[in-house]
Design a protein that fits this description.
single chain, 144 residues, mainly alpha, 0% strand, globular
């Protein structure tokens, strides 16, 4: 559920970012990750061991709920910051995304002692969804 929520809010953030003058969304998005993780997305994928056939997939598909929740908070707060402060321009938006990521990072460390990059990868969301569908089919058979 959190993963699906992030997808919705990333679409919303993308629209707000475009209105703010972001023309290269991947740089803007990476700035938010850089703030939260102290590294770029490519380095983060390497650090977490997401390579090979899964390297083109979103890291979000392999995050547990604590890490997903941190990213959801980062995305929603970045959108609010851009809109509420009237931030305009690519570089200004990137700075805002990075600063929000840093605040979320600081909060995580303060509350739980965990850095987001230290959290382990979770099962692939595609596998989880497949397992849920299979279980649902099995329950339907049992109900008959």
């Amino acid at each position: 559920m959190i993963r699906d929520e992030i997808s919705l809010h990333e679409k919303s953030l993308s629209g707000v970012a475009m209105e703010a003058g972001v023309t290269e969304y991947h740089f803007f998005q990476n700035a938010g990750y850089r703030g939260l993780y102290n590294m770029n997305m490519k380095d983060l994928k390497d650090y977490k061991g997401l390579s090979g056939k899964d390297s083109s997939r979103s890291l979000l598909d392999f995050m547990g709920k604590q890490e997903l929740a941190a990213n959801l908070f980062r995305v929603t707060q970045t959108e609010a910051k851009l809109a509420n402060e009237g931030i305009r321009g690519q570089k200004a938006a990137e700075r805002a995304a990075e600063s929000v990521g840093k605040k979320v990072r600081e909060t995580m460390i303060e509350i739980s002692g965990d850095t987001p990059e230290s959290l382990p990868l979770a099962r692939d969301i595609k596998q989880v969804k497949g397992d849920l569908k299979a279980s649902s089919r099995e329950f339907k058979k049992l109900d008959k």
